[in-house]
């Protein structure tokens, strides 16, 4: 049976590395602040969110039509279109394309989808060298870690960590942690690969049906080098990325980078439409659970996600636990509502790694009701008996006590001399987690109800209109 | 005007003074308050953990206790939110729907229904940091959330501003969640406590002597953190301040 991710335990380790934890929180909160300022500069911001949400609603409810339109146009442009049912099929298709052309070196830009498909180890095991060319993604690749954030993959690292990784892996001076030096070193290290690579790869931020175009938004120029230099270009595209028309792109482009980094737009918004002469262009359209998600009444809205990461930046839990604590490709609030569709048991603790504060929903540029979906996932997880036994039992017991005025009063009123029952019911846990870093509230001399009976005892307070079996009678 | 008073379980058992202040405040304002004696809880603790089925009987009891009232008032944003948005484990009869529609959080009841703007008996000569709990802020929309682009407003601030002598300190992250989150506080204890410590520190460095909130559960958590941190910040529910508590 799959092991359940223990988010709390992983978060605990993250928090113990104090400098890292504080920097992580500050850095991402800073992005949230920039996002606030940039979005506030557009008076129509909230209207744009509604518009973006509506476009995604429409595209997702007409997905088959737009995907076929996209395919027709992409083929007319000279691209080859492949369909992959799942991650395994995606990897086979990509490997098939590379192997048939004898490709040995693949340069690629950032793509969450290829991480989702675990493509790199698959290709590497088959003798293909894969070079991540996005700086953050490359740092993570060299360090043998998955990205911890969908936009800023190495945000949990301090520059000292990067200096260590680079010195070990690409021979930089371990004493130098100057960011310009490190970035320049990575650049110098990567450039030859662009020239030598047999193939280039990107993900896609958007796929436009009416033109058959792949749109990739980046800040480093590495995607463009990956596409333009090699003779072979492969784009991996999740099927939910399709939007109907070019005119819709403007809505998303105005919101993507403002939401993600608090900058008005990414340095590059590249439209890859057709292979240049002598080049081959392949597009792999990947399902990998998306159609199934589309059929889930409470959760299909998560497919609107444009992967801006704003929900992660604003999430107080994500900021303090780090992306790797989620043990999944997608972390933070959006991860919490997507990951259980991949493996309910494995990711069953993630929807509980939330205070349901709702800030994620408010920053989402496509108005995904993230915190409401988190609440709904909790119902699904408990309904399928995937709660830890201790919690399941505590809830059953609490439900019994709170449904009976008699038991409730016995619990609350008897407890006034010792510790009151509520922290015990709420904090019921063999390790008494509440008191580890917090004081317990003191037990008052009387409950409100007892005070009320003593001070306001009069006939106006009434009993329920109908009986409720045992415990329903007021005393 | 007649209203039923719902005192959430944790306020009843742990913070009776908050219930008393709520009752007295409503009485001062001329509301005829009834307190159904068989009330316990709204069902939120179970439902928030995914255990709607375990919440059903508690929700049914809540609906029976409060059936027929035009106004059900409670000093808790998160309980109000549960009743309004998530009390769905039981059949949605007309009675249940009416109970859900008629439930108000104290601040919104004062601000929107009674439209009170003056509390001549209230005086609180301290610098306070206002904590609007997340359900109060984002679900009940008692104030503008910092991430939403709309004109600024704050109902709790509008009420507190009428209190004599009160001063406000603004933390750097005014509406960052404090990390209570119900059982999140124990099942995600490390993150919860870190959030609580950060919250208290933010208010303290802004110069707050007291943290005031309409949500006692947030305050219980923050107070627990503050005491362990050795912080001198005090905690008080908005009902107490508006009812004229002195410190």
Model description:
The complex is a heterodimer of chains A (475) and B (247). By secondary structure, chain A is of the alpha/beta class. Chain A is built from 23 helices and ten strands. Chain A has helices at residues 7-16, 18-40, 45-61, 63-76, 87-100, 112-116, 119-124, 135-142, 159-170, 179-196, 222-228, 246-260, 290-294, 310-314, 316-321, 332-342, 359-363, 370-383, 389-402, 405-414, 421-426, 434-437, 448-456, and strands at 80-84, 105-108, 129-132, 199-202, 206-208, 213-218, 232-238, 242-243, 268-272, 280-286. The radius of gyration of chain A is 26 Å and the shape is globular. Residues 459-475 of chain A have low confidence and may be disordered. Chain B has 247 residues and is of the alpha/beta class. Helices cover 48% and strands 11% of the residues of chain B. Chain B has 13 helices and eight strands. Chain B has helices at 9-14, 16-28, 44-48, 52-66, 77-86, 94-101, 106-113, 134-139, 155-160, 184-187, 189-206, 216-229, 238-242, and strands spanning 2-5, 32-34, 72-74, 103-105, 127-131, 167-168, 210-213, 234-237. In chain B, the strands form two sheets. In chain B, strands 2-1-3-4 form a four-stranded parallel β-sheet, sandwiched between helices. Chain B has a four-stranded parallel β-sheet with strand order 6-5-7-8. At the A-B interface, helix 1, helix 2, helix 15, helix 17 and helix 18 of A face helix 1, helix 2, helix 3, helix 4 and helix 8 of B.
